[in-house]
Amino acid sequence: MHCEQRSNIHSFYRRHFGISYRHSDYSRDRAFANDARGPYDAPRSYDESEPADDAGYDERAAPPGISTEDLPDPNSPGAKLMVGYCTQCHNLPSPSMHTSAEWPGVAQRMFDRISILAGMSSGWMGMMRMKAPSAEQQEIMVSYLQAHALTPLGPNEIPSPDSPGAVEFKSACSQCHGLPDPKLHTADEWPAVLTRMQFNMRSMGKQVISDNEKNEIAAYLSEHAKQ
After folding, report:
1. Is the pLDDT of residue 54 over 50?
2. Whether the Cβ atoms of residue 186 and residue 224 lie closer than 8 Å to each other
């Protein structure tokens, strides 16, 4: 794909859908998803230091995802459908990104977008070869996401709720999802998780926590983390 065409596609996605189109010929996950819907171009992995290319197309615009191996029950139909369809537009999302109650609405927005894109089969948009899941496949994907969704803390389940760390935790994390249980990770794991969330906030235009706020949240979560 020429740089000018790729830039045009990227601009179309950002203007109409608020997402970043990922065109890639990397095939890391190709065989994994063939049983779900047929061959597709899987997204590449990348890091924050990677610059935008010469056409101004920035692959870092979408939040970082996870690998197929990190999906719960990765060989299930739901997991394979996620790999086959979700990665046409963005990185592979973790089911724990949202609660069970949130996923149907989030998934429906994605299904609506991909249905529109899949219908654009002429002109320069036709190069994307997008495919939309059937109604049955959509139900399988939503059921899978809900089965492995984030279980949020209830209002009375937050440890030391009035402590400075808890206040920062509630304010920052609730911008994007339900509050995760501190026991979801160990004290050693939480700092890296928070660094990833800090990047996600920036990618999605949320209010980004400062390093000091991140450290305070990390200290709070580590104090109540899984042993």
Report:
1. no
2. no
In this structure, which amino acid lies at residue 54?
D
How close are the terminal C-alpha atoms of the chain, in Å?
50
Over residues 152-176, the mean pLDDT reads 92
Helix (H, G, I), strand (E, B) or coil at 23: coil
Count of CA atoms in the C-beta half-sphere (13 A) of 79: 16
CA-CA distance, 181 to 2, in Å (whole number)? 46
Q: What is the DSSP secondary structure assignment for residue 94, as one 8-state letter?
A: P
Tell me which amino acid residue 33 is.
Answer: A
Two tokens at 80? Answer: 């394979």
Between 91 and 166, residue with greater pLDDT: 166
H/E run at residue 82: helix 77-86
- Of 81, 74, 99, residue with least CA distance to 149: 99
Neighbours of 198 (CB within 10 A): 19
b/e burial code for range 8-19 (CB count within 10 A of at least 16 → b): bbbebbeeebeb
Alpha-helical runs (H) found in 59-189: 77-86, 103-118, 135-147, 164-173
Rounded to an integer, the average pLDDT of 133-144 is 97
Domain spans, the chain: 3-147, 164-223
Apex 78 CA angle, 75 and 80, nearest 5: 50
